[in-house]
Each structure stands twice: as structure tokens, then as C-alpha cells.
Q: What sequence folds into this?
């Protein structure tokens, strides 16, 4: 999700000439990721993909936490007809969401290899820019109305 959000940032998304230089296979992967993580129909594509993946996976907890919030807020703890009885349907729905998250932990990441270059990138200090600074840098890289030849 963080990758999709980062690439969807206005400062990144507006770099049309830069995007033209990106490998079409990578652009296709990003398009697929965007479609998978789209919030349409209660994140239906994400849920479908998560269900069918048979390898190690990291769930997007935002979807599952939203489910738990709606289950908790939208269902009473006790039955309306029998206030002394626990609402087992609410517990069943909560259990199902938690099981879906736990299932993501069933398969370990056994084929990952240590990569020093990636570790250096991940552990180096990067001073984050705010949105305004992002956009200013984007305009420096590709000024409005510029052609592909002008930015090379």
C-alpha cells in the first residue's frame, strides 16, 4: 500500500516524461497493484487476491481494522430479544477477520536473500520532504510545459 500511495503522490504522478522512461513491465505491475488495492466495493479485489495467494503475504491491516471497527460499532454485544445472551454472530464475524490476518502468517518467507545494497537504502537516514517540498522538487525536475528533450 505504501508503494501505491507513494507513486500516486501528485508530485510523482505529474512527472509524465519520467514515467515514459519507465519499463512497461514495471508500469503494468504498478497498475495491477493499484487495481488490487483500490477501495472499490469494500476492497473486493484486495480480499479476493489475499484469499487466492498461496505464498507468504503481508496483509494491509487498514482493511481488516476497518472491518473490526464496523463489526464492533454495528453489532450489539448482546441479543436485542434476549439481553442476557451474548451476540455470538458478532463474535463469529470478529473471529473470521482475526483468522484472515493469522492466515497471512502461516507461510514463512523462506526464499528471501540478504541484499546489502537494499539494506543500505532502508537503513540510511532520509530526511523526508513535506508535500509542498515534494511538489517544488517535482517542478524543478519537470517544469510545467516542458518537453522530454528539455528535461534530459
A:
Amino acid at each position: 500500500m505504501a508503494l501505491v500511495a507513494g507513486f500516486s503522490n501528485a508530485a510523482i504522478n505529474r512527472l509524465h516524461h519520467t514515467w515514459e522512461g519507465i519499463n512497461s513491465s514495471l508500469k503494468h505491475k504498478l497498475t495491477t497493484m493499484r487495481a488490487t488495492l483500490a477501495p472499490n466495493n469494500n476492497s473486493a479485489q484486495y480480499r479476493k487476491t489475499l484469499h487466492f495467494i498461496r505464498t507468504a503475504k503481508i496483509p494491509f491491516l487498514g482493511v481488516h481494522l476497518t472491518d473490526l471497527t464496523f463489526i464492533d460499532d454495528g453489532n450489539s454485544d448482546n441479543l436485542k430479544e434476549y439481553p442476557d445472551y451474548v451476540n455470538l454472530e458478532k463474535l463469529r464475524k470478529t473471529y473470521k477477520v482475526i483468522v484472515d490476518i493469522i492466515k497471512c502468517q502461516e507461510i514463512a518467507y523462506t526464499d528471501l536473500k540478504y541484499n546489502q545494497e537494499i539494506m543500505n537504502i532502508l537503513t540510511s537516514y532520509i530526511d523526508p520532504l513535506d508535500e509542498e517540498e515534494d511538489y517544488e522538487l517535482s517542478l524543478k525536475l519537470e517544469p510545467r510545459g516542458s518537453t522530454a528533450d528539455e528535461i534530459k
User: Anything to note?
Assistant: Residues 53 and 120 are 30 Å apart (CA to CA). The chain has ten helices and no strands.
